[in-house]
């Protein structure tokens, strides 16, 4: 690093850019607040527009409607028909005002105008359908003239409330505008000044220690693992970083061994991702079945199938957990089988018999469901007639043995031998069974995994052996291991 003096300067440039970014952030705040003020101004303009529009509407609406209806009733030669266009225009205008009005009293007034306009339209049609001249005159006086008067009155009320709000908003905007601009200008200037000085001071304080830290790291990279005095610094983070470098030099071999162990952990994580490999055709076929049920009018069956599909994928996610309880895995498998039984009701029956005392036993997510899927597609569907899938569980010493059995087509000795060999070698064959087997062995040890028995024409049984370990016991074991290693327990949860 001594031959590269430009490195500290590069750090200083980054600090300057940080200071510039902070300044630009303050400017952005100013622009945001000015935008808010613009919104207030637009609101003021909107109110003013509403008042102007309402004033124009109110000037000649009543006189126009009354006069045209009078000419129509008396059959005057000046009559040009019913004023339905004017009423429709008034309704449209009232709707537009209602969309842009926020004050409660104003909305009530304009809503009343809209309602009266609709009533007025009905009364106009009523006069049109009345043949008696006297009845028409009575309707004109008692209905038309009264309604137009009410419309005019409510429009005056609307104008009054909007004008009051407009005046209040104008006063409030003037006061707030002056106050916010002054305070904003002072606060922004002070903020920029403080942040710029702080950023530059921090830049100077970290440049020299970081340069020395880089030199020390180059020494460690060249093999100097002797513990040196930490780099002196007034910044806590840099002092801690230097002390950590020196501790790292002394613990490098231990960390290498830890890295090797972590590779196995990463392998577990990689295998855990394989549990998401669910056949997409299952989803397509299920959706097709739901559509068929709906088209056939079997809405209750369709609803149940949607519920089962929802439960199936919810248990597949399991809130991101890789290891769940046997009860949760059972619910997942049950949802899957209920969906498949709706599709294959003529060939599929199933029995699930898992003792309640095993409900809390830990099991990797998506262990049983792929086995059940294999039993259905490669066992039951490959033979003619009704088939049955059995899911059983029992305790053997300190282990739990789960059993997935089908009375389907089964496998020949050659096929079974080839499948067992693939499990032992960890090859990606055998309908995904290798993935399940290897994941179980990585999580629980070499003595656990899958065992397969099969006879051609009789059926297949897959045994899953896992330790009889509950979620709570696993958490306590993790706590004990972490406490014994001197590491803090994540989250501070008690066992």
Written overview of the protein:
By secondary structure, the chain is α+β, with helices and mostly antiparallel strands. 69% of the residues lie in helices and 9% in strands. The chain folds into two domains: 6-193; 268-492, Histidine kinase-like ATPase, C-terminal domain (Heat Shock Protein 90), CATH 3.30.565. It is built from 13 helices and seven strands. The strands form two sheets. A five-stranded mixed β-sheet has the order 2-4-5-7-6. A two-stranded antiparallel ribbon has the order 1-3. A hairpin with a 3-residue loop joins β6 (449-455) and β7 (459-467). α4 crosses α5 (236-250) and α7 packs antiparallel against α8. The longest helix has 89 residues, at 133-221. The radius of gyration is 40 Å and the shape is flat. The two termini are 49 Å apart.
